[in-house]
Design goal:
Blueprint: H1 7-25, H2 33-44, H3 53-89, E1 96-97, E2 103-108, E3 120-129, E4 134-137, H4 138-141, E5 145-148, H5 154-160, E6 168-173, E7 194-203
Antiparallel strand pairs: 1-2, 2-6, 3-4, 3-5, 3-7, 6-7
InterPro entries: PPIase_dom_sf, PPIase_FKBP_dom, PPIase_FKBP_N, PPIase_FKBP_N_sf
Organism: Rheinheimera nanhaiensis E407-8
GO molecular function, one term: peptidyl-prolyl cis-trans isomerase activity
């Protein structure tokens, strides 16, 4: 049975859980959770700090530089992996490479009107990283997506204008035509090449 029984204790414990989750989502190597707890207690109870402001600033600077270097190294590795994958993929005879570097293969062909940059479209799609990890899929949600052709990543904007309703393409998108150096949330790291199956259902 929990030793936390009152509403106030439940709320207090919840605050601790939220803080812990935030730390767990963005930790650094060597993070000491006991030291975190001691700092929280010292601040809340107005105790004298055991670590000086100068020491804290110096530690923040070093840790921040270390994390930035690690992120830059990971980004470089991802960029290299994406470039190597796309270079090999481009050799396949079924792949078309456009002037921008977008690669695609036709899964289902269709004739008819094609959308412009100013069009709004309805699509089904399935997006993965180059290792096959699924990060987004309207098929899995069971509901198509509607959006302006100009309101999506550059690789999609270009590809949609090549499609007619009923067609389906598999896109291989370099990072500079996707989410680039920023990435997108936790699912898509910076400099990630992406793969999308895109089915154009309708021009709205």
């Amino acid at each position: 049975m929990s030793k936390y029984t009152t509403l106030e204790q439940h709320a207090s414990y919840g605050i601790g859980l939220q803080m812990g989750q935030q730390l767990a989502d963005n930790p650094f190597d060597g993070l000491d959770i006991d030291a975190v707890a001691a700092g929280v207690i010292a601040a809340f109870t107005e105790q004298a700090a055991e670590v000086s402001d100068e020491q804290i600033r110096a530690a923040f600077t070093v840790i921040s530089e270390r994390m930035q270097a690690e992120q830059a190294e990971k980004a470089e590795l991802l960029a290299q992996a994406g470039e190597a994958f796309l270079a090999e993929n481009a050799k396949r005879p079924e792949i078309t490479v456009t002037a921008s570097g977008l690669q695609y293969e036709v899964l289902v062909a269709a004739d008819g009107e094609k959308p412009s940059r100013n069009s709004t479209v309805r699509t089904h799609y399935h997006g993965t990283l180059i290792d096959g990890t699924v990060f987004d899929s309207s098929y899995q949600r069971g509901e198509p997506a509607e959006f302006p052709v100009s309101g999506v990543i550059a690789g999609w904007t270009e590809a949609l204008q090549l499609m007619s309703p009923g067609s389906k393409l598999r896109l291989y998108i370099p990072h500079n035509l996707a989410y680039g150096e920023r990435g997108a949330g936790n699912a898509i790291a910076p400099f990630s090449a992406l793969i999308f199956d895109v089915e154009l259902l309708a021009i709205l």
